[in-house]
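Data deposition worksheet. Section B asks for the primary sequence of the deposited chain exactly as it was used as input, without tags or linkers unless they were present during the calculation. Section C holds the resulting structure in token form. Section D is free text for depositor observations; keep each observation to a single sentence. Incomplete worksheets are returned to the depositor.
Section A, Depositor: J.P.
Section B:
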Amino acid sequence: MSAMRHRPMAPPGQGAGAGTAGEHGDSDDNNFTDDESSPLTHDIYGGSQRTIQETKGWDVFRDPPIKIETGSTANQECLELTVKILKIFAYVITFIIVLTGGVIAKGTMLFMTSQVRKDKKMEYCNKDLGRDKSFVVRLPEEERVAWIWALLIAYALPEIGALIRSARICFFKTFKVPKTGHFLFVWLMESLSAVGMALLMFVVLPQIDAIQGAMLTNCLCVVPGIFGLLSRTSKEGKRFVKVIIDLAAVAAQVTGLVIWPLLENRRELWVIPVACVMISCGWWENYVSPQSPLGLVRALGRIKEEMKYTRYFCHIFLSIWKILLFFTVTLLIYWAQGEEPGNLFAMYGDAFGPHKIIVYELPAGLGGVLPDTLESANIDTVDVDAAYNTVVYVLLLQIFGAYLCYIFGKFACKILIQGFSYAFPVSLTVPLSVTFLIAACGIRIDDPCFFHDTIPDYLFFTSPSNFRFNNFVTEQMAWAWILWLLSQTWIALHIWTPKCERLATTEKLFVQPMYSSLLIDQSMALNRRRDDQADVKTEDLSEIEKEKGDEYYETISVHTDRSSAPNKPSIKSSDNITRIYSCATMWHETKDEMIEFLKSIMRMDEDQCARRVAQKYLRVLDPDYYEFETHIFFDDAFEISDHSDDDIQCNRFVKLLIATMDEAASEIHQTTIRLRPPKKYPTPYGGRLVWTLPGKTKFITHLKDKDRIRHRKRWSQVMYMYYLLGHRLMELPISVDRKDAIAENTYLLTLDGDIDFKPNAVTLLVDLMKKNKNLGAACGRIHPVGSGPMVWYQLFEYAIGHWLQKATEHMIGCVLCSPGCFSLFRGKALMDDNVMKKYTTRSDEARHYVQYDQGEDRWLCTLLLQRGYRVEYSAASDAYTHCPEGFNEFYNQRRRWVPSTIANIMDLLADAKRTIKINDNISLLYIFYQMMLMGGTILGPGTIFLMLVGAFVAAFRIDNWTSFHYNIVPILAFMFICFTCKSNIQLFVAQVLSTAYALIMMAVIVGTALQLGEDGIGSPSAIFLISMVGSFFIAACLHPQEFWCITCGLIYLLSIPSMYLLLILYSIINLNVVSWGTREVVAKKTKKELEAEKKAAEEAKKRVKQKSMLSFLQSGIGDNGDEEGSVEFSLAGLFRCIFCTHGKTSDEKQQLTSIAESLDTIKHRMDTIESAVDPHGHHASRHGRRRTTSSGSKDHHLLTSVAEKSGDESDESDSDTSAEPKQERDFLTNPYWIEDPDVRKGEVDFLSSTEIQFWKDLIDQYLYPIDNDPVEQARIASDLIELRNKSVFAFFMANALFVLIVFLLQLNKDKLHIIWPLGVKTNITYIEETSEVHISKEYLQLEPIGLVFVFFFALILIIQFTAMLFHRFGTISHILASTELNFCKKKSEDLTQDQLIDKHAVEIVKNLQRLQGIDGDYDNDSGSGPDRIARRKTIQNLEKARQPRRQIGTLDVAFKKRFLKLTADAENNPATPILTRRLTMRAETIRALEVRKNSVMAERRKSAMQTLGAKNEYGITTGAPINNNGALPNQRSGRVSNAGISIKDVFNVNGGAAEQIYGSNGGGTINQGYEHVIDEDGDGNSLRLTTRNPHPHPHHQVSWGQNTNGGGGNGTGRL
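Section C:
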């Protein structure tokens, strides 16, 4: 028995069994993943009996699996091309908007500051005043006041946004109060920034021209530059060069501050350095580092770390303070300039209202030169009306330009197009602004009327005096400005090299909560977060490996969220690795459904293997790396065995799963694959089968015996939650902090047994989880699969449900149901209070059966929502599931769903107050929305009924009452049938009515169209119908991949009465039926049960005969069964004549039989008493099929069960009394099912005692089978009927009252109505006699309630349509973020070969590890041209298939075989594989791979040599030489040279001897490239070394092996 039966995914050195490390000589790769050599060493892929494939020469023809593309594998080329085109558009449009927004915001800011200049004079256009004259304008004070207010508003709006955002987060989420000293420092820096901004806007920029002002905005990085310089650590590469450039950049910034004050010698310009330095203080936080060598900067770094948690609290106060401070400084500046501050308020009305502009006519002698003073008597003036709205338009341009720049810049960062569409336009903003300003100012100086029709003639930028373009280089300091621009680019260089994940939150992208509108480009560049962590280079991985001992866990951890574990040194980096447990529930799936599910798991296995190997051997960092393990929980997996009623065997569905494993693997890998038979474990709940898939992930099937553990889906979910999160996580001997980190990054992927998906769908859900730590569950887009009208209906229903309803729930609140067929749940959320524990609640009340068991996935989501977690929906994550194809199956499915949905939503609404308080994502408005939907659901049948009544009137031209009678009769009849008849009759009637209603609906559609034609397009019905159809059509257009679903809308329309009237009635009236209703099969019965059925059938037959025609004539002479006659005859059961009748004599044989049965009953009760006294002896003597309380019943007092045994249960089959000796069986040691030949000849293993005890305790606590207590069942049935009656009564009354009110209002519409203003009919009548024209208007009359209901549905439609648009944008962002465009980044030719490999690592590995074509037959079906078929290597491939060979069954072995053959010398190695058509294996690429290969070899050699020296981690010394694997070498192979280690030995560092990877005497999996011949006695008595562990796990055991097959051989034991 193996020392470690089932190893949990534990952190390194903690949770893994030492037995594993000892058996395989590997301490690096245990823990969370399977041992790299384990499947190869231990003969997992094929036993020795079938490793060599012997093929007859005449039987070499092949039937390889054909790749069928359906469901998730359907051709996605069109979609991929569309997405790539969309991404190109996203690149271009985002670039244009960010650049345009930045330039507009910058330009309008300079335009506003130009008008703030006191006594501003400029030349005025003479076009309207006199062509031959010159005019000058001076701005009045009212105009200046307006522009000052515009700057104040532009500054304040983003601060108000920050205030609202901070208040929302603090009020609805958590916050932390900062330390007083820290808050004061932040307050000081923000105050300096606000004061500096006011000085720049109202003092500096008005005093210089607009071109100089634009250049000056590149000199606002002094403080960030200094802090960035001081934060550089000695660990950075090329630190000296970077420090030199930092100094140069800071120096360039400083020159920009003093160059104009020095050159122009104006006193007011000395405000420039003060203002610019103060402004740059606002971005201090982004440039300080806690790792700085200077203590002061480190202290600031600590404040920065605290600000992650206190920022929003601080900004509630800082936002208000900055607005007030900016306004106060503005007043002071205004006062300092000699103006009265009160004018800002007194002139406010005039400034933004009509006022005059005074234009001065210049005398001819001035020659166009502006005079210093205009107040002279000989100058004429002209009053011009001010275009006072201009300031508003410019302000709006500034606000929207800055906002669009910020929003689209953030969008660019989220979808990972930051370089081209964020950094580039932000860096171009000032150069482009300067260019436009030079052009505009030059044109305006040459022609003052050029902008006459665009800009008011009295407004323009402050232009340089006598400006000419050729003076720009010398006078405008163009060369100096280029230095300032370059220095800003260097200081903000981080925006060109982003390291954020897809769809990163705003907090991860930006430091400050909002942007600075007046300096938008500087804000975007300096506020974008820097990643202080340096890149981990491939050559650094060896150091990581030394520290960690696990090479590919650490590589992924550099991309995880480091903020998740602040100040917790006990947390290891490997704890943040994503762990995905796929947990599927199976019952009675078909073969096709199983294959689709298995193919999905095989794809995940292949993807995970590729990511693992890419990190392990290509040394790349994969941000999407994950660990993966599959668990299937098979309900009711056993049946009575064919040979004995006392034994059990796996049922046909389990056997079908076993049989389809190889077929699914062959289809995925496109070559014939035979997996090794599963390892079989007897367990307290039934059994377990464990496969190791080709990618080395575990595939574990838990077989549930319903007589040992509770069955049904919810209890299977409880099983895997408690097993994976309780037993395998919480029982790890590690710190609480580590458990917390692991739980946060552990996800349960809940699946159905027929689901079909791709790995990318799971990655998208994980992205959502990583983005939001409060996310408890995420679901994808479910596509129904099947054929027939019912499937077509569901296609449209699912589409509308996801497009509108789920998207709306996601956007305005939370998704209420994350379906169990394909959802991702966070382990930590499930482990929270009132979630997992409450989910184990046994259904003891009628309501529980409806809410808990009928819709368990919805209830689980309700529990998460009530604990404050968010549930989201990702439309880009596609999964395909088989849906009901038959009418009955569909109705039964919805019979479960409808009541459970209503019950769970009612539960949420009833608890709304507490849920709103605890859940940040659920608001009162969202609760109102759900109330509206619930009201629509409850009143749905009444609404449909009224719709049918009205449609009958319109279509068939009958009156209201007749239509009412025609519609009410079939509905009442259907309700009566549902109450009185069996389910099959109800469904038959529903099917007939549905067909009739479909035909009627077609007539109704025509009638409605005619009615709309009469009422006109303005009628409420027409508006609502057009809006609904239009919203559906637009939604379909926005989902182009699913557009064809809209074609099923006609079937949906025809089915409305059936689905929204009959189905609701059927579900509510059958609320007391709690059976599953779908996938039901007949259970296999014992011989005894068959005999009892036969006997019962005979009795029934007799009773039928007795109750035949004319039997009432016998009533006076007693029952037929009591009398017999000497002479009797009968005719076809019509009558029976008896002559000479007499009473039946008692049958002695019958009495003896009765006595014997009584004795058997007594004997059985005695056996039961004996079993209570000596349970072990009794258990060994008989292993009955019937469950006893020792196998899980809650009642521990066995004696109490004596009286409960019925006669049927006490009876034993004939086989019990047979004389043949029976094999003694124990269900935990040797149950019959493990010997079943249909379960394959896999090895048998056993669970550890700890796990066995866990399962026993779990079953005893929560999962013991519920006894069929007739009294309790009768009570529940009675309670369910009572609940049904109450629900039906309430439901009926609500609809009846609604129908009654609306119908009566409709009948009396002429008396009580509302006039509809649209669709008015105008009638014109001409009376000839009087020559009069009468014009009358006819308005549509609406009853009030009906109008309210129409608007009610219209409101829901508007909400859903709007939310759908926003959700579509989010989904497209997600898709675009996951899409790579090779040609939009560097071309492959421009990338270095290392970069090329890093970029395509997973793709390279997937092609190198594929099993198809491992023998070199790559191009059998490839190529093109007229002779493509003729060039096939058919005969060569057949000949190759004929040769005996060993199978390569694992993906990593196939990878190693190809990887070791890689060489840049194509002539000597023509077998180098081609990766893909997109990524050709050029010689340079192969050479780069060779470098990686040699690097791995060198590191493995170094590691192996250390094993021989002081760093030997095994606590064993021996006189024999130890080989590179830490194991004793084969003595016959001679001495191993460490200097001349071979490639095979390098790759074998994790396993046993070299032959264990490349082939052993046991068969196993052989790499053809290195087939190694060893002696049969090889390692027969080698000692398995055990790693020293200072903290031994309870499971750690020392194993002493007698053979090399490991695992569960007979020669191993436990100490």
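Section D:
The mean pLDDT is 76.
The longest strand covers residues 1314-1327.
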